[in-house]
Specification:
Length: 363
């Protein structure tokens, strides 16, 4: 896969049984054997996962059924302000009413106990659940809900970073690209048509992509579209080399993980050099890691400034790099952010090292 120019590389439903699955007798001493630890752990994990599901859903109801089995409750409910209540077992109406009367404090009436689990939600347990067991169950539910809230917050932060990247597509570049296309309408209609199709591909990928991840091949197509348009605008000032190994093309990557880095190389490398410059993009496999590099031979920067760029403290530049860096770290861990290799007068290289296989990262 290549863009215009030379081709060389420069390194750098809920189950509704009327009896909980785990009998309360298994938790109350006496001659009955204790619970199987593995089964209890697996049930706890399933409960935590189910409580993350939409309120009132079959999965949430199933989670409460399992929770009741763990603590020996005859019924269990989770009431959250502004959301449908989730309930398993008899006495739903009375349990929801008790939760409404609890008002942020523990309240016991008619064999039912309402326990606050965070700021707003109330857990209701019915039956002979001891005070200590009820407290531990409420703490478990509160922790599960807090973890779900943090997970949702991370997802929203990722979506916000992606929206920010899309909003940062340079209006100056878009204007220049359209102006250049218009200039060819009369003199070279075929080239104008080709460039317009390239522009449409660039916009489609940059603005209309809906998934969290795309194959690396899709990112490289977007890069090629961008570089083709940039060369139409900058002419011979921009020289391009793109090389990518076929084995990394199917690797899933976050949307817009690569194109903003190439745009940064053009804007801060080539356009700032009087004679233009060279942008090189490569992708290759190193064992279980996909290594992507974006090089330019522009003016470069001090290592201190590069660190400030990734820290988000540099003035006037680097927001796209910060967003890409934070998205990569959020997905792959703190060791997989951007690496900038640069020095004044020595150009800039940006390196991404992405696991070729990452749990949860699928297209």
């Amino acid at each position: 896969m290549s863009a215009e120019g030379d081709h060389e590389r420069v390194t750098p439903a809920a189950r509704t049984s009327l009896r909980p699955r785990l009998s309360a007798r298994r938790f109350r001493g006496g001659a009955a054997p204790g619970p199987d630890p593995t089964e209890a752990l697996e049930t706890g994990v399933a409960v935590a996962a189910g409580l993350r599901e939409p309120a009132g859903s079959a999965a949430a109801t199933e989670a409460l059924r399992r929770l009741a089995g763990l603590c020996g409750a005859e019924a269990a409910g989770l009431v959250r302000p502004g959301l449908p209540d989730s309930w398993w077992g008899p006495g739903r109406a009375d349990g929801v009413a008790l939760a409404g009367r609890a008002r942020g404090r523990r309240l016991t009436e008619a064999g039912r106990t309402a326990l606050p689990v965070g700021d707003g939600p109330v857990l209701v347990l019915a039956g002979g659940v001891g005070s200590a067991a009820a407290r531990r169950t409420a703490a478990f539910v509160a922790d599960a809900l807090e973890r779900a809230r943090l997970t949702d917050g991370e997802a929203e932060a990722e979506a916000a970073r992606l929206r920010a990247l899309r909003a940062q597509i340079s209006p100056h570049f878009v204007y220049n690209a359209l102006t250049t296309i218009a200039s060819f309408v009369r003199s070279d209609p075929a080239r104008a048509r080709d460039l317009l199709e390239t522009f449409a591909e660039f916009i489609r990928h940059s603005l209309a992509a809906r998934g969290d991840y795309v194959p690396l091949a899709g990112e490289f197509r977007s890069v090629e579209a961008y570089l083709t348009l940039a060369r139409a605008v900058l002419g011979e000032r921009l020289r391009v080399q793109v090389r990518v190994a076929p084995e990394v093309l199917p690797v899933p990557v976050p949307v817009l993980a690569l194109q903003p880095l190439v745009e940064n190389a053009v804007q801060h490398g080539v356009e700032r050099s009087p004679d233009g410059g060279l942008v090189q993009v490569s992708g290759e496999a190193e064992g279980d890691v996909c290594v992507i590099t974006v090089d330019d031979d522009g003016p470069g920067m001090s290592p201190e400034h590069a660190r400030a760029v990734l820290a988000g403290t540099a003035e006037g530049a680097g927001l796209a790099l910060v967003n890409v860096d934070r998205r990569l770290r959020a997905v792959y861990g703190p060791d997989h952010g951007l690496v900038i290799e640069t020095a004044p007068g020595a150009g800039t290289r940006i390196v991404l090292r992405i696991p070729r296989f990452q749990p949860g990262v699928v297209i």
